[in-house]
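Appendix B. Chain record.
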Amino acid sequence: MLLTLRIRDFVIVDKLQLNFKPGFTVLTGETGAGKSILIDALGLVLGERAEPGVVRAGTDKAEIEAEFDIVQLAELQRWLTEQALEGDEHCLLLRRTVDVGGRSRAFINGRSATLQQLKEVGEHLVDIHGQHAHQSLLKQDAQRAMVDGYADLLELAGEVRTAWQSWQALRRTRLEWEKNAAAYAAEREQLQWQVKELGALALTPEVWRDLQNEHARLSNAASLLEGAQFGLEMISENEPSAAGVVGAVLSRLQPLVEFDPALGETIELLESADVQLREAAYGLRHYLQRADLDPQRLKEVESRLDAIHSTARKYRVSEEALGELQQAKQQRLDELGGDDADDGLLQRELAAEAQYCKLATMLSRKRQVAAKELGARVTTEMQHLAMASGRFEIVLKPLNEGSITGLEQIEFLVSANAGMAPRSLAKVASGGELSRISLALQVVASSVASVPVLVFDEVDVGIGGRVAEIVGQLLKRLGGAHQVLCITHLPQVAARGDQQWQVAKHMTNGATLSSIRELDTSERIAEIARMLGGVAITDTTLKHAEEMLAG
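Structure tokens predicted for this chain:
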């Protein structure tokens, strides 16, 4: 619900803060006092177009700020999180400024926002009904949503949307395949031999590394054998050999250690060297016995390396990337499928179409029932609202191939007078009639409406007496499910409000300013008496006003 509205330097308001309450609130006041300023300010902070003229004369900018309780609006909370615009838990703060040049800035929870974001937020919060404001009632999307919401079909409508998107995606894929069938066949043939060629290499990063190491070993076979033989001879087989020299030194020093223990450390080092030299000789001897340095194997390795280098140059990739290239080629080949891939696509498309038609047909049947019931109920409410001959219909116009929203287009039709064929609501209804039709719709659909705040401007145009009392009762009833604000000239409507605000103009320092204040019970009696009796307010008029409030 709307908690607070702060207005500064807007039209003829210098500074104003309004704290709102649940239920039905009425705004009354003399003609020209500026009652519509409140609605204009609310529209501006919800994303309406800003004009330079809204800035109060003599000031630099106008500023509107609105605070909402959104604890019950889970979808809006999710949207704010997705947009990184969340604020305090369950509280939403909107702000809009307009300078004298017409430039405006928007803020959501203290963060700079676009006008489109402000509008999207506003669609979750407030619906303004009046001949001078945009009406969601005239939009076909809103009409369809109202029917689906009334009949609890929003989830099914979402399934239809998803089914349509799946069907159309497959259809586009199939058409693209048919258009490029020859090219795909040629690509598939090329990919087949490319995958075969790359697969023959059986190359992985590990295999490539091992091949390089093996080639280095085989190509230096002579040097390896010669070096190993030289090392073996120098360590143990020549005269003298390194092992023999170390052994001779040990033999000379070991008897002497008992005369001078200081030689012990040196002897330990020589003993360690003797052991390591013997192990090295054993290792070289073993290497020479087992060395696999076959020249034929070298030719095989070099042949395979040549094939790898040649293939890498052919595909213009590094040798290490050939394995990944094979996987990518295989993946694309799998995507293209076999020679019967187009048949598989068609079957999948037909299955998706059948699923869409099944869900959309179910949705259509339920919409037909809901449209008939909703149309009858709205007609009844219209006839209570000074439209005795009025008739409201909801038609479902079939679409040849369906759409993302179903198999039909939903349109609201109205006949305001007897003998007239129903026509599009946007083309027939006058401002006052549109407000009353909207009121009738909102009352009927209030149990499923998601927007918490409803604003009505001039719903009392052209009515009075008993019908005015009915309008007041309807708005009172609507205030049980929503927060309702209504500008009215009718005492019958004002008397039904849970709270009443009076709008007045006054002169301050030579400037005309508008103010709004909440009335207590005695002030409400006086205001309703003014609305009943005009300039001369008698005791009888006051008594009548008191009785209306009591009733």
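Further analysis of this model is presented in Appendix C.
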